[in-house]
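hey so i finally got around to running the thing on that chain from the lab meeting. sorry it took forever, my laptop kept dying and i had to restart like 3 times. anyway pasting the input first so we r on the same page abt which one it is
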Amino acid sequence: MSPSSFSLADLRSIYETSFFELIRRSHDVHQASWSTHDVQLCTLLSIKTGGCSEDCAYCTQSARYKTELDIEPLMKCEEVLPRAHQAKENGAARFCMGTAWRGVKSGDAKFQEVLKTVREVSKLGMEVCVTLGLLGDEEARQLKEAGVTAYNHNIDTSPEYYPNIISTRTFQDRLDTIGAVQRAGMSVCCGGIIGMGESITDRLRMLEVLSQLDPLPESVPINCLVPMPGTPLADQPPVDIFEFVRLIATTRIVLPKARVRLSAGRDQLTREGQALCFFAGANSIHYGEKLLTAGNPESDRDRELLEELGLLTKN
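ok and heres what got predicted. didnt touch it at all, straight out
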């Protein structure tokens, strides 16, 4: 267990601190660990879209739901590279590639194509992140050798609420993949999604699990659900902005050395809401007009906001 792990009671005490005291405390923690003007830009590209066998209730890429998403095959290396070059030119310090797969297996032709792509993208000087589903030790080792910096594998929510969202893989499956990533020496990018009908306790239990990982996650994306037509969660109401900022602040206090990433659902936040998140300790955004299949603020709007707030981007 991580020596910095927090109990649910600890987390509840932090989260329930009066709002301004909470964000003041999280801002102080952030200042002690990071340059307060450092925001990393991360570009995310879906390199294989739709047709997934999993039943994640939030996802348009599941083959089990009737959505308007077009299924697209795995992109070849020569198709991905221009997008990676463009991301770097636009200021991205991390390039993440995602596939709508349950997982990957060593020796599979599609996995070999991904490894080829990783080798080429890693030559561009950006951090390379991939999210490919479940991994074993051998697959993780090959990704590390190919040049993957970090592996994204979210736990999504609390262990207790998880079965309400996904039935085709277990919470332990998620933890097993994270273990393989850690043993291979890659950084772990692991967070969750809020707004799926879970309770505040579920959100804090998610943070409790993250605080118990050893080593701790290097990157923690916090996603707001983007309700997508055709999915079981299509009618979920938006997340309250003060609840979201409280979770960002609590995450920063609990995981002071992690990059806290504002991920999906950021286009639903006002400029003022995003500013509060940055003050509370968020120091990375997913950057670009699309996140896998969900919308995202336009790059120019993000640049304008960061400039107005005096936040420099990390390259």
